[in-house]
TrEMBL record:
Domain spans labelled Rhodopsin: 11-159
Lineage, broadest ranks: Eukaryota, Fungi, Dikarya, Ascomycota, Pezizomycotina
Family: Belongs to the SAT4 family.
Organism name: Fusarium heterosporum
Matching InterPro entries: Rhodopsin_dom_fungi, SAT4-like
Subcellular location field: Membrane
Record-linked PANTHER family: INTEGRAL MEMBRANE PROTEIN, PTH11-LIKE INTEGRAL MEMBRANE PROTEIN (AFU_ORTHOLOGUE AFUA_5G11245)
Annotated membrane topology: Multi-pass membrane protein
GO cellular component: membrane
Descriptive protein name: Rhodopsin domain-containing protein
Keywords: Membrane, Transmembrane, Transmembrane helix
Transmembrane region(s): 20-38, 50-69, 102-120, 132-153
Length: 177
């Protein structure tokens, strides 16, 4: 493992499974935010309700596309991902799939942050504390977008491969034994 290649079938299966935890799992907080918006938007704003349906549809389709992409990127048989040999297709190391998934994630993230802006504009807040709270919430959304951009830059220009970390962990565990 000194050359940072992973030849262990069990480890390849784990790497394949991590795609679901991260790539698809990243949509669960988005659905949580959409559920919050659902309770926040009054029925008296039909345009915002329609926009919320659109946001839910886009986010759901991106989550489904991510799940299917992670499963079938290398073909109809997902076991290709952990087959013997280094030249086999692997979803985990596909930079093209990473860019597609990131694009969908980033788009849904930005839409989630932009969605409530018309509602916030219509709010009448006399308290500076309430204004600060709303600014803080939007700030958290913007921080999430910045972190997403940073992750994309890092994985694009550094590596999309955790085998470096796995190799260091293995070396450390060997030293302790």
């Amino acid at each position: 493992m000194d050359d940072f290649n992973v030849n262990n079938t069990a480890l390849k299966k784990i790497r394949f499974a991590t795609n679901y935890f991260f790539d698809t799992g990243i949509y669960f907080p988005k659905f949580s935010i959409i559920t919050f918006y659902w309770n926040l938007v009054p029925i008296t704003h039909p345009e915002m309700r329609i926009a919320l349906y659109v946001l839910l549809g886009i986010t759901s389709s991106f989550a489904l596309a991510t799940f299917l992409g992670d499963t079938f990127w290398c073909g109809a048989d997902p076991s290709v991902n952990w087959a013997e040999g280094d030249d086999n297709c692997q979803t985990f190391t596909s930079m093209t799939l990473m860019r597609i998934n990131w694009g969908m994630n980033f788009t849904s993230e930005v839409l989630n942050v932009l969605y409530p802006i018309p509602l916030v504009r219509s709010l009448i807040m006399t308290s500076k504390r309430k204004k600060a709270g709303v600014a803080l919430i939007f700030g958290l959304g913007i921080i999430t977008i910045i972190v997403s951009i940073g992750r994309f830059i890092t994985t694009t220009f550094a590596s999309n491969d955790i085998s470096i970390c796995a190799s260091l962990a293995l070396k450390t565990s060997r030293q302790q034994v």
